[in-house]
Amino acid sequence: MITTAIGPTNANSNFRSDDNAWLKPLRQSLYCERQARGFTLPELLLGLIILSLLTTVGLNSGSGYLKRQQLEGATRRMILGLEQGRDAALRQGAACSLQLTAAGSASGWAPPASSNPAPCDVGSLPLMESTGWPGQAQLQFAHTFPGPVIFTANGLVNSGGTAVLAIAGTDLVRCVVVSAVMGVTRAGSYTGEFSQSPSASNCKPDSRL
Predict the structure, then answer these.
(1) Is residue 189 part of a domain?
(2) 86: burial class by Cβ within 10 Å (0-12, 13-18, 19+)?
(3) Tens digit of pLDDT for each residue in 71-83?
């Protein structure tokens, strides 16, 4: 006859096994109940507040970047107008002129009212491209060019001046300085007061250009 002895250790082991089998359906039921419950109203409100804050920060950062890019573009178009006038005079083999106007969204290079010398054959070149979007940034612009800028037949400039460009929403202020006669052009960051007459001495070199 073979007898099998069941000691205390085996009995406890079987009890724990039975206990786990008994609790398993209950644990699964509680887990499913937590999953089905979803989010509470305070949790949803907290999530919406966090999302709103992140969106606001992102929009402000993106808006500042966009305005800075628009200012850099206006500065490049300011210099482009000078290059186009110079090229037109060389191409025509005769002196020509361009007028730099500061009139809000219409600021930029345009044919002068005077026909002596004749306008450069380049047309108008606004400093800001119109996108048609609501709330488009407005360029703040001032300069010291005395009347039309005249380009000689050999590509020189008979008068110099300083232009300052800014856009609300960015602390960056750009400047463009044109020296008389030789027409050497340099651009940089303006450190003076925008409300005062632009000064070439306040146009400092900028490694970002």
Answers:
(1) yes
(2) buried
(3) 999 999 999 999 9
In a domain, 119, yes or no: yes
Whether 15 is in a domain gets the answer: no
Q: Could you report the per-residue pLDDT of 161-179, keeping only the tens digit for each? A: 999 999 988 889 999 999 9
Q: Residue 93 — left, alpha, or beta (φ > 0 → left; ψ -120 to 50 → alpha)?
A: left
Question: 32: which 2 tokens?
Answer: 């499913």
- pTM (2 decimals)? 0.68
What residue numbers bound the domain in which 162 lies? 72-130+137-204
Which is nearest to 121 in space by CA: 165, 77, 160, 151?
Answer: 151
**Among residues 140, 147, 144, which one has the least CA distance to residue 174?**
140
Tally of domains in the chain: 1
Where residue 190 sits, what CATH number does that domain have?
Answer: 3.55.40
